[in-house]
Amino acid sequence: MQVKITDNSNTESVMSVITKQEELTPIKDAVVQAMGKNVKVQGFRDGKAPLNLVEKQLDPQQLQQTFLEEAINQMYPQAVREKKLRPVANPEIKIKKFVPFTELEFEATIPVVQEVKLPNYKQIKLKKPEEKVAAKEVNDVVENLRERLGEEKDVTRAAKNGDKVWIDFTGKDAKGQPVKGAEGENYPLILGSNSFIPGFEKELVGAKAGEEKSFTLTFPKDYGVTSMRNKKVTFDVKVSKVQEVIKPEANDEMAKKAGPFETLAQLKDDIKKQLQQEKNRQAGMKYESDLVRKITEKTEVEIPQLLIGQTVDKLINEQKQNLTHQGQTWKEFLEQQGKTEEEYKKSLEPTAKERVKASLVLSEVADKEELDVTPEELETRIQALKGQYQDQQMQADMDKPEVRRDIAMRMLSEKTVARLAEYAQK
After folding, report:
1. Residue 259 backbone class (left: φ over 0; alpha: ψ -120 to 50; beta: rest)
2. Higher pLDDT, 34 or 342
3. Measured between alpha carbons, how far is 415 from 293 in angstroms, rounded to an integer?
4. Which residue among 96, 237, 316, 348 is least enclosed by CB atoms within 10 Å?
5. Does position 21 have pLDDT exceeding 80, yes or no?
6. Whole-angstrom distance, CA of residue 163 vs CA of residue 246
7. What average pLDDT does range 225-231 have in this prediction?
8. What angle do CA 184, 188, 192 make, to 5 degrees?
9. What pLDDT score was predicted for residue 426?
10. Helix (H, G, I), strand (E, B) or coil at 92
């Protein structure tokens, strides 16, 4: 087999393959044998007739088509391995010459990633920060517990900070049109909790049960929903009930009500432990992300636009799934973002490019470090994941080849990042 590579660009290669008859004959024999399993040849038992006689019973056009498919399926990956190419998608195949079944020449146009030029990643250092839980953080959780365990008592007086008010509200824009998401019925709100947009809770301080209020607020410039930033909305609010929240004292009795604790000190120790675990988890994720980004920024590689586009599509599919769980449509989401679908796709390209580049970096480091995931390691992880699900269908999905591949790739990435972290902290 003769293989020649021509680079159309840094992200596309053309591979020409010329094969010999001795390479094609075994493929043809295997195809004839497979297609002739149900062919009956007079004078021979099923499956025992010579291949040349079986071939005469087959449709020539179908035989040639099947042969070409099988030959390319075998020759293409072999040629890719020989030339050490990095395909990122299926190739475009053109048959240049075919003389049944003695000569075959084909050309494959392949989206590829060329050389990934890594920096000296073993010398890149990054100190892992130490996270500590402050006493105020523990006390804040205790205060939240006091609020949750508090007794709620209806009052007729004016509402003040710390009270719970039950409200019906609607929001309208400057044209008097309802603002989606800016409405609620029988909604409980703790005044002073700062859980609504700035200014909303302050407007309700002093209100009594049965009172109606109308006020206009401007949404913050950094508000999560892009289309609502700096937008003026007029709220009509009716207070149906005002309740005083009588918090229990922060003592041993409250600790017993909060969980399996005998003393307030035990409760605080448990809170501190939980907060520390979460801080460590968040800090670990950020550290790994920062480390990979630091190495990625120093890496040189040309990324095919095809890969970026595929990753954008994946990001959008993930977003659509999240929206489905939240009960929001894709159209509503785009309206909130103030973008068309094409504009939103464009806005995701930098994120997609960074994700693709990081993936290529980790793959290259894994190769250089000769890291791998053993079948035993993969099976252990899959069994652990199965144990997290009660649904039998979800457990069965873990055995699908594509799912197992994804899990193995994640495990390899974890190993690679762990190795980089070892170098970074030496």
Report:
1. left
2. 342
3. 16
4. 96
5. yes
6. 9
7. 77
8. 115
9. 83
10. strand
Q: Fill in the amino acid letter for 416.
A: T
Q: Is 342 exposed, middle or buried (0-12, 13-18, 19+ CB in 10 A)?
A: exposed
Structure tokens at 80: 């890719």
Quick check: bond before 101 cis, omega within 30?
A: yes
CA distance 256 to 248: 12
State what percent of residues in the chain have pLDDT above 90. Answer: 55
The tokens of 122 are what?
A: 């073993």
Tell me 128's DSSP state.
P
What is the pLDDT averaged over residues 381-401?
A: 84
Choose among 80, 72, 94: nearest CA to 27: 72
Closest CA relative to residue 231, chosen from 167, 165, 168, 181: 181
SS (H, E, C) 41-90: CCCCCCCCCCHHHHHHCCCHHHHHHHHHHHHHHHHHHHHHHHHCCCECCC
Average pLDDT of the segment spanning 352-371: 92
256-279 pLDDT tens trace = 999 999 999 999 999 999 999 999
Q: How far apart are CA 207 and CA 243, in angstroms?
A: 12
Query: Of 369, 386, 382, 370, which is closest to residue 408 (Cα–Cα)?
Result: 382
Our separate counts of H helices and E strands in the chain read 13, 9
Single-letter amino acid, residue 290: D
Those residues with Cβ within 8 angstroms of residue 24's Cβ, 6 or more apart along the chain or in another chain:
71, 101, 102, 103, 104
Q: Map residue 107 onto helix, strand or coil.
A: strand
Kindly state the tokens that stand for 341. 């679908």
4-11 LR contacts (CB < 8 Å, sep 24+): 5/83, 5/85, 7/114, 8/109, 10/114, 10/302, 11/111, 11/112, 11/113, 11/114, 11/302, 11/303, 11/304, 11/305, 11/306
